[in-house]
DNA sequence: GTTATTTTTTACCGATCGTTAAAAATCTTA
DNA sequence: TAAGATTTTTAACGATCGGTAAAAAATAAC
């Protein structure tokens, strides 16, 4: 990365073009959309600026005009994705305390899976780049992923009144996140060993079953069932 | 991949060189060792033949002399790694039935973590390439990873007499594998969000605690405790 | 010790990568 | 419509990639 900076920032024409026509999407947004698509298919180091350019229907150097480096573009995509996820995650807890642990967990997972179906790219970008971000092979902005998980953990502890130790709560949430991120971000793999289709309703049901099966016992306990 | 084949296979001198000296390592083994190291640091598409050559202390085209393509070299490394893991995994079950579920699980995890500490590369190669092997971005020999997990599942069901349905058993084993693979293969990430050092005893203790915490309730149940 | 064979190195191919610079096209403003 | 600013394309740079071919070195066979 030898370049400091090249020209002044984009500075869109004059404020806003605003045509009455079918709201022609701004180039910057078009690039972000294409980048999200490509980064959801290929890990950071395998995705290329040229792929993104092609997906956006533009020549690839134009990307450098709006995003000086590939790393900055990726960070922007990651920031948008984790924020979208974070906001959605908060809403999944709404009204959950009215139900018993089993019903509440099932409802939470339903909402979560619904989001995952509608926004598969968000999930996959995180899954794809979480593991390789180790050692020598640094993924730009992977701190964002760590921050994201810390924030969702906070959301959880604030939304659900648990009685166990901090240690127990962290183990439970980390397990849930790990299982969820893998089952949804590596669908092809898991569906493969299960003999199912990655996009099938059957597989999503398996994910739901599995999450409930593994999480429910300890969740019940942490919610204060004293019958242990 | 345009090349069909170049020359006849290696065909080591005449059978075996066998010097009485300090057992000079054969080049092929040196390459495999270096490849294992590099593939444990970088996912398949980011690792390069040149990196492996450098790690082995040879010029990179020599690698093509022993392994015609990068894909074949990777498959060989993957095959050796999963086999080593598979063999070790069988031994972890020895004598476990003498103990109650809690002690037995703890002992199994101890043996497993001991292996993971001694052979971190094996674990990491699997973790690094499991997720990206989706969609367009094919990892050569990733069928080996699927087969490996199917085999370990068989080992488990044969070694441990469980009473639940097949569905329950699959969910439990898949969860265990997923958590273990992630916690050990993505140590830096998890240790990071936990505020620990990836190589520390403290982190390994957390992994053990977490696995027991999440697995034990359902394991107890499947082992036939009727007090549920 | 000479020849034949195997192993290793050197040099290079075409392809792709991220990025840069300059030309061309488009839009804004007058 | 002319001048100026902004956006987009074209062309190219240096670096790296997997792989190939031929020369060089090392070893084996005789």
Give helix and strand order of chain A, one letter per element, not per position. HHHHHHHHHH
Overall number of strands of chain A: 0
Most residues in contact: chain pair: A-B, 47 and 46 residues
Mean pLDDT of chain A: 86
General description of the model:
The structure is a homodimer of 228-residue chains. In chain A, helix 4 (70-91) runs parallel beside helix 7, helix 5 packs antiparallel against helix 10 (201-222) and helix 6 (120-130) crosses helix 8. Chain A is mainly α and 228 residues long. The first copy, chain A, has a domain at 77-222. The first copy, chain A, contains 10 helices and no strands. At the A-B interface, helix 6, helix 7, helix 8, helix 9 and helix 10 of A face helix 6, helix 7, helix 8, helix 9 and helix 10 of B. Chain A binds a DNA duplex (30 and 30 nucleotides) through helix 3.
How would you sum up this structure in a few lines?
The first copy, chain A, has helices spanning 27-39, 49-56, 61-66, 70-91, 101-118, 120-130, 142-159, 166-185, 187-194, 201-222.
Characteristic key phrases:
homodimer; DNA-binding; mainly alpha; 228 residues
Topology (SSEs and partners):
The structure is a homodimer of 228-residue chains.
Chain A: H1 27-39, H2 49-56, H3 61-66, H4 70-91, H5 101-118, H6 120-130, H7 142-159, H8 166-185, H9 187-194, H10 201-222
Helix pairs in contact in A: 1-2, 1-4, 4-6, 4-7, 5-6, 5-10, 6-8, 7-8, 8-10
Chain A binds a DNA duplex (30 and 30 nucleotides) through residues 1-3, 6, 10-14, 17, 27, 48-50, 58-62, 64-65, 68-70.
